[in-house]
Amino acid sequence: MSPDAASDDLARDAFAVLLPAFASLDCHAVALPLLECGCTSILIGETRAEYLARRMSVERLAAETEAVFSGAIARLREACPDLIVAVDQEPIGIRRLQGLMPFLAEGEDIRELDSATIEHRAAEMARAARRLAVTAFLAPILDVVTGRNAWLSGRTLGASPEDVGRIGAAYIRGARAAGIAAVAKHFPGFNELARDPAMYDVSLETPRETLIADALPFRAAIAAGVSGIMAGPAPVAALDPDNAACTSRAVIDLLKGEFGFEGLVVTDDLDAPATLRGRPVAEVAVTALAAGADLLLVVGGPHLHEVADGILDAVAAGTLPQERLRDAARRVRAFAAGPGAVSRNGRC
Fold this sequence. Notes:
This protein is an alpha/beta fold.
């Protein structure tokens, strides 16, 4: 391989590890150049108002039909046939595909459903998502919330690790059986937070012993074959008081070591104040990769070209090992070609 070809491949790797999030399907002007540069994934997200309301807007529900949604994704796949198309489709809480598929639980307590019913309904949801060309659910939420936590209010599966683990594992098995990759979140679990980490720089102060006990649902998810795990957006003081969980080597080493997870490690939103902690997003992206994260969730926009440049600069400076970047990109592409892939042909 010539030096120029190797350099081009490395540049594509820097884009491949980015997961740009867009609040609208009308994102092609920004998303297509990213895909052409090597990006292999996209999060079709929601607005801040929808995020807070835990439901999609009346305007979105009226405008987004199955044909509109799948048509928008088809345009993106022209640039990247093996495209990871992710959505927040939580069992309860934020359900980006509201109006386009049935809910897993509506008007009933999900904890009252047996595992077989949850698995069956999750598979139905996944089949509907496949018709829309979606390949991954950023779900289920496995945090066991036992205190104040406005960030996860209305989104969690209960206060019992056993209940959350059972429901989460059934959801994962159902989605996986129907060809959708599940990404469980938010490791190691945030039982309480004084403020929303998407708005404030806040840390989790829970003792390590409680963290490990409450993380039982992640063990159940791994046993169920979960494809990816998202680490959380705020520091976990008992493990690493300086870095958010998704940018912390200590947290990611715990996930890969003591928990034995070998799948894709995904960050939460790197743009969150509790993750940035006053640093530029490119610097935080390098920190996350060096810590062992593979796929970096970031707000979509033209600035991501600068983030990719920052990653390449870190490789050139020796602060990010080249092999770590190449390994992360390989793992992202393998995820794209896994159970959630629509196409296995083409090179993005």
